[in-house]
Amino acid sequence: MRVRLDYGRTGLDVELPDALDPQVIRRPGAAPLLDPIAAVRDACARPIGAPPLAELARGRKSAVVVISDRTRPIPYAVVLPPLLDALAAAGIAPERIEILVATGLHRPCTTDEFVEMAGSDVVTRYRFRNHAARAADAHVHLGRTSGGTEILIDRGYLEAELKVVTGLIEPHLMAGYSGGAKGVATGIAATDTIRRTHGPAMLESEVGPGIVEGNPFRADLLEVARRAGVDFLVNVAVDRQHRLTGVFAGDLEAAHAAGMAAVERQVRVDLPAPADIVVTSSGGHPLDLTFYQAIKGPVAALNLVRRGGTVILAASMAEGLGSADFRRMLDRLRAGGDAMTLLTAPGFFCIDQWMVQHLDQVLRQVSLVVVSGELEADALHGLPLERASSVEEAVAAALRRSGPRARVAVIPEGPYVLATVRGRTLPLGRGAHDAAA
């Protein structure tokens, strides 16, 4: 059997023995929209739970449009023009519109990346700005959430008279689903806000892909976004080729709820029993550019693999491990440090520590094998995981551990699929239940 995994820009073909009878898990999906530009225009004109965008914009002298950074595969060359046309029709001049990139704590996007994301026409006509989470004076303090999170939000966003937030709805390892409030509460928040929402105690609670109800991370983010204010939301769903399959615009909560329900129908697959071995990707470019982002692949597989099983991750990681902070955290693990002991030490904090915690959550439950043709040979040396030169080699080794009758599942699209056992979405932390239970 030959299966193509989403890997880098080109994909990776994998051959597995037919005798294994591997289950290839693909999201149910939805047909791409025939006229996506018209769909965005119509969604802005007939939104969910809010007045039309042009009506909201009328009489406003300035606007900010928040967009995701280059790690999210949103076709902004399709999404932005009809949205910006609605603002222009309401009388807001292009020079009074800022496009704010919700980088969170990711690196800033380059001009070339802006062009790749949004197209040269939009980049030429409008002012783009990367959010700078580490710049303390670039934020305004809006108090605290009921959970104690300090609310520090991008000053330029707050000063704009009209606030529009865009984003992608997909399964998310902390928020259950991305999009909605996350575009504000993480994307354009200061380091101190992100530090609290992404803290070690939070990530050991009821968080995980597909978990919405009772998710304290979601609740905190929503409280932050409400305080900051969102006048209009434009969230989208995409297929494997990054084509639009849905547009959900309007009220922050109502439009996002409609989008999450639609996306769950597009991405959720329920299996009757857990797998012993799961082969997965991290969704290909742009999500698998770094090991930091690629960890989302095995995290999503935890819903499906039995405790003590094996997850095999194939990811390009063309840009290496990730940020300097993330690499320093990995060095602490190489030196023999226990991740949770380090993360929960009084006063300890390091940017990007949350993905180290998620890696630790994976390693507590399964064996992890990494396959990457672009990551340096010794980049993961000393970490409690394995590397293999090919997926075929990794599967053969896993079968020697689990036996020839092992159940094998393959998730070509990685974290873009919500794969479950009998519909159970499991928390990632220490309270997680075994998928086999």
Strand order of the largest sheet: 3-19-15-16-17-18
Which runs of at least 5 residues are low in confidence (pLDDT < 50)?
433-437
Give the CATH class of the largest domain.
Alpha Beta
For the biggest sheet, the summary is: 6 strands, parallel
Number of domains: 2
Q: What is the molecular shape? A: globular
| Terminal residue distance | 30 Å
What share of residues are in beta strands? 15-25%
Helical content (DSSP H or I, runs of 4+): 25-40%
Mean pLDDT: 95
Task: Using the CA coordinates, give the radius of gyration.
Answer: 21 Å
With helices defined by DSSP (H or I, 4 residues minimum), what is the helix count? 17
Structure, explained:
- The chain has 437 residues and is an alpha/beta fold.
- The chain folds into 2 domains: 176 residues, 2-enoyl-CoA Hydratase, Chain A, domain 1, CATH 3.90.226.30; 230 residues, Rossmann fold (3-Layer(aba) Sandwich), CATH 3.40.50.
- 33% of the residues lie in helices and 22% in strands.
- The protein is built from 17 helices and 20 strands.
- The chain has a 6-stranded parallel beta sheet, with helices on both faces. Strands 6-5-4-9-12-13 form a 6-stranded mixed beta sheet, with helices on both faces. A two-stranded antiparallel sheet has the order 1-2.
- A hairpin with a 5-residue loop joins strand 7 and strand 8.
- Helix 1 packs parallel to helix 3.
